[in-house]
Amino acid sequence: MSFSLGSDSKLPQGRLAVVSYVIVGLTVLLLVGFWKLQVVDSTHYQELADRNRIRTIPLIAPRGRMLDRNGRVLVDNYASFSILLLRDDMKIVNRALPSISDALNVSIEDLRQQLETAKYLPTYEPIVIKPEASTADVAYIESHRTDLPMLEMVMMSRRRYPPAGFLSSAVGYVGEVSEAEIEKSDGKLRPGDMAGKSGLEKQYDSVLQGNDGLRRIIVNSVGKEMGRLEQIEPVPGKSIQLTIDYDVQAAAEAALGDKKGAVVAMNPETGEILAFVSRPSPDPNAFAVRVSKEEWQRLNSDPNLPLMDRVIQAQLAPGSVFKIVMATAMLETKAVPESFTAFCPGQASFYGRVYHCWQPKGHGTVDLEHAVAESCDVFFYNVGMRLGIDRMSYYGTQVGLGRRTGIDLPGEEPGLMPSAEWKERNYHAPWYPGENISVGVGQGPITTTPLQLARAIGGIALGGVFKTPHLLKSDQPAGEFRFPISEDTVDKVTHYMENVVDPTFPGGTAHVAYIKGVELCGKSGSAQVISAQGLAKVKNRSDYKDNAWFVGFAPRRNPEIVVSVLVQSTMLHGGEIAAPVVRDVVKAYFDKKNGNLKPPMTAVAAKVTPATNSIQQQPPTLAQSEPVPLAGAKPQASNAAGSPARPMH
Amino acid sequence: MQREAPRGQCTESQESVSFLMREKAGIREYDWWLLAIAGAICLLGVVEIYSATHNIRVPGSPVYMKQLYWLGLGVFCMLIISRVNYHRILEQAPVLYLIGIVALAAVLAVGQTRLGAKRWVHLMGESFQVSELFKLIIIIVLARFYSEVRTDQLTLGDFVKIGVLTGVPLLMILKQPDLGTALVLIPVAVVGAYLAGIQWKHAVALLVLAAVLIPVGWHYVLKPYQKERVQTFLRPEDDPKKSGYQILQSEIAVGAGGFWGKGLGRGSQNQGGFVPVRYSDFILAALAEETGFIGVFITLALYTALLLRLVHNAQRAMDRSGMYLVMGVAAILGFHLLVNAAMMIGKMPVTGIPLPLMSYGGSVTLFVFLALGLVMNVRIRRFVN
Predict the structure, then answer these.
(1) What value of ipTM does the predicted structure carry?
(2) A311 at the B interface (CB within 8 A)?
């Protein structure tokens, strides 16, 4: 043993004592450090800990459905799962990439690409690696939660619209909210939320939207749910019941087919819209997920304007349909005697200019009854000249032309009912008498929308009661404005309109629209877009071709349905191409009413569900508050005032 | 080692002394206060290991049960080593040192790579960290060295020898790479040097040498991940999701615990797995979150009592070699405590230094009990007046 006991048993006691003090001193220092964190700054760290562990997951409220007037589902939702990748721990994620790739059938390069793209996002933000996941994907993730904790699913409620653009222009579509919308919403909307972008989806967005709920969960360091703190259930959006009749709508869709134009059917006594078609129309299901920039640009630059809702936005010359307003004005004002006749040789000369009738052979001597039935232009050139712009403008305005109808849809256009004052204001020129000739046959600067014509004609047939058209079904009566028309005038005008369709009355322009057992009354129109010479110059380009109109209602007394049809860019007359559409729609309406309806060929809404939580809302009444836009309207470029008239009827 | 001449002379008296002492050298002579304090710390550790791991699945027994097995094995080892007269152990210091160096070399050559570092060898079916064993060897070797210094103050030559004895294994452990364990060797040398007597000029020279060696080591010795840890420590906000993440999460856990703590099993940082290796290196953060400042205070008080009790035993050692053994143990345990606790509150870089007696781990638990066995060994051979 190398250690002698005595000599080295003298220990450095002083130094050992110093070591003791050092130990105590260091302990105190450590305790001060812990005190600072645990007592002084504890609140701050508590917040950090909460931010770590508490994750708020939004629970998206499903949008309300849209039902037809009989409670059949028109617009519905479907559940769709998106698969999220939590990137809190990239090491684990990178190691698991091959198995994720196998499981979800997404190529590993694709996943790497997505991770690369998301590199600059905060890592606590999960990324969607597979939208619209299949049920197999969902099942796989559910059963592999422990192996692949970085995968998470969120259920999204997506919109299911009727296929092939059925009713799409009225329904509109939803899309991700824009930054401006988020700012306006006072915190209700967040990035990524869906909101109505057009049509009824936009109009009734606040009703359909509902309130999103949220779930606050406790998560561990890899984002796995460990417990639940609170859950605020989402309040689903309310369903809305529309005035649309699915059967009538289906007939209208089928009748218009692929033709560019619009159909609107409404009940003139209530203002309820029964059918609403605009063509061409994109399939909104394509927008339900996300529209690509390219697709959006293509839609916007398409010369056929697929995004235009022609029922309320197509402002076109009404052509001969306007002759009904003329006839009413003539009978009501008596400025032109009822017995007035005109001789039509196929053309007439006014103020040194020749105006043609649509019928080059001429109509011979015609009175008002024949002039309406045969749509004689020369007769109404004369009436227009004799009434003058002030009376025509007054009557046009009073039946609702040149101002918005107030339908519960965004983006309605007012059309234009010209007046001398309007001409003065916008062109700083007086109204020339020659312009009366054009306006007399619904040509020149006058423009209307299909909806305006439906309401005007329906209102005249009802003796001057003009209901605000609306798409939301309501118990309360719709807004209206009145312009009393004498019973005698109504009787005569509707009789003349019946002659247009009645095959027993020779010369009527729309015998094709006759329906046995239905008193269908109507008026055709063919309106030129530019003058005949102009059309020849642009080599008959389709977008400058004539527009064909037909507006019809039935029955003759107390009409239940008025249908306005526009077919654009056609060389056919309104009586030939638009009248059959009106006929089909009216026939479907009465077939259904009389119980003769054949079941529709393609059922859009497979399940016929009664409306449960629908709301009934008063459609906005607007006619009173809407200023009559005689003064405000801008001139319409497509209809140059005072251009020489081409034949029309 | 050059002073082996008196061996023959002393043998007989040593034998007789040993014989005398063996009579009273028994379980009853253990430092029961020290063991009670250590036991209390171990109990806290097992409870916190249970709390931190009760909701995670591991293969085999639950983690806290494994820790209990290791504690049992540790106590057994302590009993064994306390029975072998520490002078006999000190005699074998050169042999132990050589064995230790060879073992470290073997680890570097054939060791099992785990977590990117070669630290482990398989021993009786359990993986074992050789560098832990070397901590024990350095205590013994330096105790032997210091006890043989006859002057009041260490000479320059002594420093060179200490530097070589400590530096060779230090560099080998650093090469594994295991910065934490490598650094642990230093306080044994430093505390020993202080007790043996150090001149001011030498102390200053050592500090200057350290100031030179640190940048050299930074460039040529440290692995990239070690550099990253140090950099992260210096600027944690630069990188809150990698190494800085561990420090930050540890700090959050400690701070969120508040004064009274959130209760066992209720710490979100701990239970949610935000605290890294919460049942091992970061167990103090888990404990701080769940038992608050109160728990930390009690824990640090127990450790302080443990260290003071070690100093107390050193003061009553039979000879200087016994004192150096006990103080070597105290130096290592104190260094572990200081670095680990400071790491929890963001005052030290992450170095992989566990908290002895509390952190889960076989190698470190065995080391601590073997070290305590040495202390008991010295204790039962003290002068009892």
Answers:
(1) 0.88
(2) no
